[in-house]
Amino acid sequence: MPDQEESNHGESVLRVAVPLPLRQSYDYLPPADANLTGFRPGCRIPGCRIRVPFGRRKLVGFVLETADRSRIGRDQLKPATALIDSRPLFNPELFELLHWSADYYHHPIGEVLAAAMPALLRQGKPLHEEVTFWSATAGPESLSGRARRQRQLLEFIAESERVTRAELIDAGFSPTLLRQLLDKGLVRERTQPAPTPSAFTPLQPGSRERPEPNEEQIAAIAKFRAAGGGFRSALVNGVTGSGKTEVYMRLMEDELAAGRQCLVLVPEIGLTPQTIDRFRQRFALPLAVFHSGLNDSERLQAWRQAHDGSAAILIGTRSAIFTPMARPGLIVVDEEHDTSFKQQEGFRYSARDLAVMRARKENIGVVLGSATPSLESFQNAEAGRFLRLELPHRAGGSAPARLRTLDIANEHIPGGLSELALTKIAQHLEAGNQTLVFINRRGFAPILHCPLCGWMAQCENCSAYMTVHAQPPCQRCHHCDSTQPVPNLCPVCRQNELSTSGFGTQQLEAFLQREFPATPVLRIDRDSTRGKGKFRKLLAEVDQGEPAILIGTQMLAKGHHFPGITLAVIVNADGGLFSPDFRGQEQMAQVIVQVAGRAGRGSGRPGEVLVQTRHGDHRTLGKIINSTWSEFARHILDERRAAGMPPFSHLCLIRAEAADRDAALSFLRRARRGIEAFGHEKQVHFTGPMPAPMEKRQSRYRMHLLLRCANRPALHTVLGVLVARLDELSAPGDLRWHIDVDPIDLL
Question: How confident is residue 175, by pLDDT bands cut at 50, 70 and 90?
């Protein structure tokens, strides 16, 4: 174990991390049948997978290092079962990034390494595909004349020297026949790795037509190129429709022409097929895609193509940040502000932040892009740590959409839309255009209640109300996904007066279908797009350009180009004004600006955006409507600076959850008491422990302990002590705790 004195065994010892929530590594001897000279200290096996006995189980672990000493006695060391890889899966720079990630996010290294590779590799499948073939060990004369088909097969194998399964089937021989020869020992089966594909052919100039960049795009491209080679990071701060993707592609051309690979991270690849199509149309080069819709074999195949360099462009969601590149050239993070780049379970990393760190370690460029940059990235550009590449105008000469608020504080809106909003929708449809109604609420209505006794339908498992769904009819919790039938009577007063409050996408869909019976109403949310291909089918209908009304959630707020939309109506836009999360106003503003960017993108079609609100005189809402994003960001940054909140300080959230509320609270109280004095020495401020804003979720109570410090190294010093303290504390068996460095969600 780590605390025991090291002993010298006279032969190499392997330090192995296992994919379990354990923070230490374990020492093993090399496999019994291994060539020990290949395991000398300092050799190139760190990063290789290895099978090891662990208790009663066999696990696929990861070699961290080789050493000539162990931390335990020789008689306690077990030999590893087998070394799976002959070479490390990750290059030294990426392997170093994974170690850095484990330290920075205070997460067990074994789980970090496991999270960085496809499931089949975690299970021990070879990196390279294997080919099985058969060769003859005896001549056809060894068979009697009655075994005619066996003799024919043996002659075929002997003449060919070695044959594959596909060749046998093509020649008309069955697997059963082959098995008969194997059982008689007349043929031998062998397996070897398939040939490694060659690297992609570098991009040839003029291989595809491309649009001419405008002056702002040319300036942005030139500024990035002028920064030279090696590591450089840039923020492309461009309004919606300004042509940020064209800047990405031009910079990618430089790398692809030199034979270097490009990694593009997007928030939700399954929701933005237009992005994939644009890259396929632009570059006549092999492209690998990574997202949750792939099966395990497809994920492994894409990973192989990236690893061996046969894929030129890699496009994926957050986990793709760990994809190896044989010849790394450029990393692009599109919509860098999107919260989906932060992993919320297990290893809680930020793919955006790791993209910058990976580019630094691999000495390449990284480009972050957004019309509404996160305040962290915006401040990095303000401070000169990022190059600022600005695109303040829309490409193609289209004017930005005009925003205005609709104050509905004193208006009765039974359908969810004001009279003026309905009038505007009718006008835009009559002009042959499309309209977008944005509401970030799925279902029919967010609340079912009894107006007589005040009962409200709440989830039994969570501190949340049940959402009423009309298709299919039920109540559903959007946090634990539990469902219940919609009752006919109030369960408290037994009266038949139940009513709903608020609006969801399904209710708006039904209302607009009644109001505009001659116009297609297309609802796009996670419920309507569950089936395979449904989302693409809906997008194809929109792309036809015929008058239509789109109703959607955040799925429609990013990455889409709908030239037919000239009006966007934002319903319930002001929910973030009073959020308990300090990022609530920033995220609300990002949604409003991103949705507004969907309107008026077509040439000669001016856009209009109506923001329905019950707080029309709120200062923050006025700033969003009447300012540029840069002006709004500086306003919020001033408030953050005064409050000592990120990006002017650094946070870590410790969460504990258990079936017993007091057990979780007591656990964090003991942890805080154990390090409070040391934390205050380092000027770390503690808040809590206290119940989370959503105290109960999935039948478990959730408690928070928040740490804040202006100095990042000091915070991590305290975290190291706190994590050790948490590991030592006794806790109920069902209690779980985790650490979230740089949390994006405090709820």
Answer: confident
